[in-house]
Amino acid sequence: MAEVFRRTRVVRFGQCDPAGIVYYPRYTELGHELVEEWFREGLGVDFHTLHEEWGQGFPTASLELDFLRPTRYGETLDCALWVTRLGESSLMLVLEFACAGEVRVRIRQRLVNVDYRTLRPGAMAPALRTQFARFLHAKDTP
Q: Entry's Pfam families (predicted)?
């Protein structure tokens, strides 16, 4: 059975607008933090190693956010991440931020493996591709 990477976040005052709800650009930051934690804790490779030692990166090639319901200061978000497509040089992620079982925001994000020496897309390392496959689901819902 495919895995889902999960974490929780309490919404902080500084993440909110004057109405007391999460300011929409903050979800891109929350998403990036979740992806970085997934690489480190879920896949076993931190960004420093990936970038500095391996000379590789996975920049975002496309990003789509659906804002389904507002989230307020102090609420706890249940954050989930999984893979829906896995190609030779790219992968599609779905990230969901939910509160009390209700999805508040859904992000679809395509990452592309880039060789930092050439700044061109390239095939993923087989060991890393195997790690990505552990989180591969057939659709946008796990």
A: 4HBT_2
Token digits for 49?
């190693």
Q: Which two tokens stand for residue 24?
A: 């929409």
Within 13 Å, how many C-alpha atoms sit on residue 84's CB side?
Answer: 15
* CA dist list (Å): 50 to 8, 37, 41, 47: 25, 13, 13, 5
38, burial (CB in 10 Å: exposed 0-12, middle 13-18, buried 19+): buried
Angstrom distance (rounded) from CA 138 to CA 82: 10
pLDDT tens digits, residue range 95-127?
A: 999 999 999 999 999 999 999 999 999 999 999
Cite the beta strand spans of 14-142 per DSSP E: 56-57, 60-67, 76-86, 90-99, 102-112, 114-115, 120-121
DSSP category for residue 75: P
- pLDDT attached to residue 138: 84
Closest Cα to residue 130, out of 91, 93, 80, 79?
A: 91
Q: What share of the chain is helix, strand, coil (3-state, %, to 5)?
A: 25, 40, 35
Q: Report residue 24 CA to chain centroid gap.
A: 16
Q: Which amino acid is at 122?
A: G
